[in-house]
Design goal:
Length: about 650
């Protein structure tokens, strides 16, 4: 596309200024739509190149030299490979497409070039839906088609130049007219069981829970306001203090980082009370872990439960996933602990955090076999020891737990969970760290729980004889509202404007629209399509029936369009009808045509009365005279343009 032209029209008129301006706006819209997943530096460079090309053509004109285009193409390719290490995949593909589209402007000098650029822009807009299919993103992509349609319309021959809003309004009407056909295709085009594209899904740029945890890891996650999942319950939802969603269970500790163990086997035994049934709609994470309400009783389809009752999908969750299961908020997990697991749950690295180890050993010596008293001593330390909850804690040194417990006293959930487990292990109580989500916003309108990435949380589990693994949340001892009211209350002081209660309430209520969109549009999969006609007695809608319905619907749409065209059939003298419309609008501005006045004199008098629209009126006069006196039969293109110009004309003011 860049620099290769096997065939060239010998007599192509140069591209006018208005179509080129509209094409630049189109490319700018494409760049804006793709900017959230492009590197910031690339977006800035491409925007600067776009502005430079617009300025160069307006003031100097002409294509860029061939050597410059080849050099820019090579630099673009090298930059994409340098940043992504490949040219394949969604992110590098989108970056390359956006860059090629900007480079296309450097050789755009004819209507043919502009048509190619507009068509390529439409393709680039559609690729943005590979990253985000939400309602707002889809609406932005749809509206992004307007300048592309306006560009194609401005390329029509003998088009009078109008203001930009008037250029976009006909494109908006065209877009609206296409919606019924788009809806028909959405419902009846057979769904594929797997994506049509084969590009790998990258998790670059995503934030989410990780299989390991180090001090400071959660700071970015706790400021991420994006939805993580939506949960609907059968019956009454659990209270906020019981909304712990288990993701990773971390056993191994090297003095700084916690990570999970890789073990196969049956899930740990659990004795439980009444179970809760619920459904989770999980956003794409690129990971296999499935957050579940603590503690899960069974595994959903295409997933399995690990020994620690972690839930893992068979493949990474690269697209939104819906799964249903049961959990028990009241339980006794793993009443018997093997000697091997006990050693693992008491293991601490040598040479780290000597003060914390000494404190745990003093508690054991002081309270003897009373594990409950040791646990209470640790919770009292966090509650009364001058600790504070903050998302911007000071940095920690090599002995992270000692620095936190005896020096800084500032941190968030992972600092408290990690320090608590180290203290328990030092005192001889088996303990481990659990990460997941806690809390969420209950949307009363949609009757579901909205859990955001900012609700990510870390807590502890200790093993007590006769009780099994017991959840302990030391963060609640420092900031109780983190558990009772959710992350928004705990993070309000650190989140700045994001902690504004009015904004939080409006944002959470707006999510009901996203929920409806996810269920009705994104969630319209193969299974739902095959059951589309179940209310009409058809229990399995196959591909053949869907194709037949699509053909019937498309035919009805075409017949409706033909009937509309017949009903709106042109008048015998279309030029005269358009002229009458102009006379009516000019009369409303005080310029009434006299009975004996010819068209040339009338337009000239109108131009004197409306000096701000002189150019537009003179163009209308030339076109009308050409239609009336230069041809035996008025050319269809010229007649269509005159009618459109008459409909677009609006007198602005009269100078008397």
């Amino acid at each position: 596309m860049i620099g290769l032209r096997l065939f060239r029209h010998k007599h192509q008129a140069p591209l006018e200024r208005r179509p080129f301006d509209l094409l630049c706006i189109t490319v700018a819209v494409v760049l804006g739509v793709h900017s959230p997943h492009l590197p910031a530096w690339l977006t800035v460079v491409l925007a600067a190149m776009l502005g430079l090309r617009w300025w160069q053509r307006r003031h100097r004109g002409g294509r860029a030299p061939g050597y410059l285009k080849l050099a820019l193409l090579a630099l673009l390719t090298a930059a994409v490979i340098y940043h992504y290490d490949t040219l394949f995949g969604r992110e590098p593909g989108a970056a390359l497409v956006a860059g090629l589209l900007v480079l296309k402007l450097f050789e755009t000098e004819t209507p043919r070039d502009a048509r190619v650029g507009a068509a390529f822009s439409c393709f680039a807009l559609m690729t943005a839906l590979l990253f985000d299919q939400g309602m707002v993103a889809t609406a932005l992509v749809g509206l992004g088609l307007l300048p592309a349609l306006a560009t194609l319309r401005a390329l029509q021959p003998a088009r009078p130049e109008t203001s930009l809003p008037r250029e976009l309004l006909p494109a908006l009407r065209l877009l609206g007219a296409s919606l019924p056909l788009a809806l028909l295709a959405f419902v009846f085009v057979p769904r594929l069981s797997s994506p049509l594209w084969g590009a790998p899904n990258s998790t670059q740029g995503r934030t989410g829970l990780s299989e390991d945890m180090s001090p400071g890891d959660f700071s970015e996650l706790l400021m991420d306001d994006r939805p993580a999942m939506r949960v609907t319950f059968v019956g009454t939802p659990p209270p906020n203090a019981q909304r712990y969603f288990r993701a990773y269970v971390l056993w191994n500790y090297d003095g700084r980082t916690w990570n999970r163990r890789e073990l196969d086997g049956a899930p740990a035994a659990v004795e439980h009370g009444p179970a809760i049934q619920y459904t989770i709609a999980l956003e794409a994470t690129g990971q296999r872990v499935l957050p579940v309400l603590d503690v899960p009783l069974d595994a959903p389809q295409a997933a399995h439960m690990g020994p620690d009752r972690e839930m893992r999908a068979e493949r990474p969750v690269n697209d939104p996933l819906v799964y249903s299961l049961r959990s028990a908020p009241s339980y006794r997990l793993q009443g018997q602990l093997s000697e091997r697991e006990r050693r693992r749950a008491l293991q601490l690295p040598a040479g780290f955090d000597p003060q914390a180890h000494a404190l745990g050993q003093r508690w054991r010596a002081q309270y003897g076999d009373n594990d409950a008293a040791i646990v209470q001593a640790a919770m009292t330390l966090f509650h009364d020891g001058g600790f504070s909850y903050t998302l911007g804690p000071p940095p920690l040194g090599r002995n992270t737990v000692d620095d936190f417990l005896f020096s800084t006293h500032e941190g968030f959930c992972e600092h408290y969970a990690s320090s608590f487990v180290v203290l328990m292990r030092a005192a001889g109580i088996p303990a481990r760290v659990v990460t997941g989500y806690q809390g969420g916003y209950w949307n009363r309108i949609g009757n579901y729980l909205l859990v955001r990435q900012a609700d990510a949380h870390a807590w502890s589990e200790i093993w007590l004889p006769g009780r099994g693994w017991v959840r302990m949340d030391p963060t609640a001892a420092v900031r109780p509202e983190r558990v009772s009211q959710g992350s928004a209350a705990a993070n309000a002081t650190a989140a700045g404007w994001a902690g504004n209660q009015w904004w939080l309430a409006w944002r959470n209520r707006w999510d009901i629209v996203n929920q409806w969109w996810n269920q009705g549009v994104i969630g319209f999969d193969t299974l739902r399509q095959r059951g589309l006609l179940t209310p009409f007695g058809v229990h399995d809608t196959g591909v053949g029936l869907l194709g037949l319905l699509l053909a019937i619907g498309g035919s009805l749409f075409a017949v409706g369009g033909l009937l509309w065209a017949v009903w709106q059939r042109p008048e015998a003298d279309q030029a005269r009808t358009a002229m009458k419309l102009l006379e009516k609008r000019l009369a409303s501005a005080g310029v009434t045509r006299r009975h004996s006045e010819g068209p040339q004199h009338y337009f000239s008098r109108a131009a004197r009365a409306l000096p701000s629209q002189r150019v537009e009126l003179e163009q209308l006069m030339r076109t009308y005279l050409d239609l009336r006196y230069a041809h035996d039969e008025p050319p269809a293109d010229l007649l269509r343009n005159f009618r459109q110009a008459a409909r677009d004309f609006r007198p602005r003011r009269v100078v008397k």
